[in-house]
Give the backbone structure.
Amino acid sequence: MGKSLEYLDIAVKGWMHDARIKMLAALDEDLDVWTKSGRNDLVTNIDKEIEKFYIENIRLLYPDANIIGEESFTKADLNVDGLTWFVDPIDGTMNFVKQHSHFASMIAVYENGKGIRGYIYDVIEDKLYWGGPDIGVFCNDVRMKEPSNDTLRNGLIGIGAPYLIHNFCNLQVVALASSGTRMYGSAGIQIIHVIEGKCVGYVSYLRPWDFAAGKILAEVLGLSVKMIDGAPLNMLVSSDVLVATKNAQRDIAKLIKKS
Ligand code: IPD
Ligand code: CA
Ligand code: CA
Ligand code: CA
């Protein structure tokens, strides 16, 4: 990839810190808000601005990079040959608009389909979770340990609301078999809870930019990141994703039924 990973880390952290300042400032201003696929699917002027800001900066340093950004990708960008960047400028836009909290900014870098760096920024908490297979995972400057391999029975499970409401794949039974269910409306924040050991799993329908960074961080920390039926994820396809401890993944596999 030419430039070193240390160089990449310094650059990306700088952009994400600058983006955080812009997001926090925007919370004190009137946002322009539009719907996308429906009234529960929002995008704001700040999603667009931050994505543009990231893409311009990536292009300056890596002119040949392929960039899959939630708000601007085209079909032509959907490949993972060479260096591919996944950009989710604000993950949890509904929370950004309604709650002014519980949202993240996410960037992931893959080389020929292999994850090399994931970054998930919990903007309000000012905690950047980042790392890759060669260095491990850090929360800001503190190295993270692998979470304990808890079972479903002994842990909380994050579930995307529509999946639970419609009992997708028997997930109501999975929820009842756990210690409790949690829903935060941001894939990034939910995956942080799994890598920190606060939840044993998270399952939701996710798009590539929702899971690209979390997949890298979770796998480095010994967690399982697969489709709910145990099949491997395709980085270019939206999927029913389960991020979980290996024990919880095994427990959930026994309970799910094809929908
Ligand atoms: C959404 C959030 C939400 C998840 C959706 C995502 P966005 O991301 O992560 O928790 O359930 O599938 O699309 O649109 O706010 O970036
Ligand atoms: Ca969105
Ligand atoms: Ca997202
Ligand atoms: Ca987003």
Observations:
- Residues 54 and 217 are 20 Å apart (CA to CA).
- The pocket of calcium ion (ligand 3) is lined by residues 88, 91, 187, 210 (CB under 6 Å).
- The chain has two domains: 5-143, 156-255.
- The helical segments are 5-26, 45-61, 93-98, 161-165, 171-177, 187-195, 208-220, 246-255.
